Amino acid sequence: MPTYAKPFLREIALKRELIGTYDAYPFSIPAVRELDHLEFHPDVTFLIGENGAGKSTLMEAIALALGFGPQGGTKNVQLQAAGDVSELHRYLKLVRGPARPRDGYFLRAESFYNVATYMDEVGYLGDYGDKSIHARSHGEAFLATLNDKLRGDGLYLFDEPEAALSPNRQLTALATIHDLVRDNSQLIIATHSPILLAYPNAKIVLLDGSGLSEVRYEDTEHYAVTKNFLNNHQRMLRHLLD
Ligand SMILES: Nc1ncnc2c1ncn2[C@@H]1O[C@H](COP(=O)(O)OP(=O)(O)O)[C@@H](O)[C@H]1O
Ligand SMILES: [Mg+2]
């Protein structure tokens, strides 16, 4: 049994004393502007919210503050970002737990392939199941990373891990997440997936126009919209397509 106590990351807080103006990105995003402090669940914390709510901005800032590169991967992968990286990470205070994680990975759907290319180039494939991740489908590469690369005792950040996964593979990912949690890991996951969000040992944080708030699974839009649609898809289609 692991002897390390979770959480590795207790909370983040905004260093307001350093911020001059809230007029410009990233401070203009309500989820950043209203961020006082955000406490993480020892197992899994989900960030949810509409497109543009600030999930990736916040994930990236947490990742950079922890020492990950902007495109993701392990901390050994320090690929510069293709586009702009926000300055938010310089304004985040991290409150860590007593123990240090032994493993870590920042999985970013948007730049996963760049990280994959880098891994190919440096010949560092042993932990990806000994097969170039480009020789796999996007979803297979994602799952290979989850299953083969992550060792446990880790702090893992995933931004939309479901992007390439079929519903069945999302169920597999759910089981993998549970295995990691049982192996003494803490995860922070930005997602739109009503399947992943069902994970029970978790806190769900909604980012919206009024800031950040905790919600129950059954009260998320993801749950309600999906359930309603699947139960009434013919009626809803008539309404939507008329
Ligand atoms: N480099 C940037 N410069 C200015 N605005 C940005 C930049 N990156 C993202 N934004 C804006 O910040 C908001 C939050 O984006 P993002 O964090 O990607 O949202 P999410 O991941 O929740 O969909 C969006 O309105 C987006 O257009
Ligand atoms: Mg995003």
Summarize the structure in words.
- Strand 8 and strand 9 form a beta hairpin.
- The protein is globular and about 50 Å long.
- The chain has a single domain, classed as Rossmann fold (3-Layer(aba) Sandwich).
- Helix 4 runs parallel beside helix 5.
- It contains seven helices and nine strands; from the N terminus they run E-H-E-E-H-E-E-H-H-E-H-E-E-E-H-H.
- It is of the alpha/beta class.
- The longest helix has 16 residues.
- The structure holds adenosine-5'-diphosphate and magnesium ion.
- Magnesium ion binds next to helix 2.
Anisotropy-based shape: globular
Low-confidence stretches: none
Strand and helix order: EHEEHEEHHEHEEEHH
How much helix, percentage-wise, in residues? 25-40%
Task: Give a summary of the structure in a few sentences.
The protein is α/β, with parallel strands linked by helices and 242 residues long. The protein has 7 helices and 9 strands.
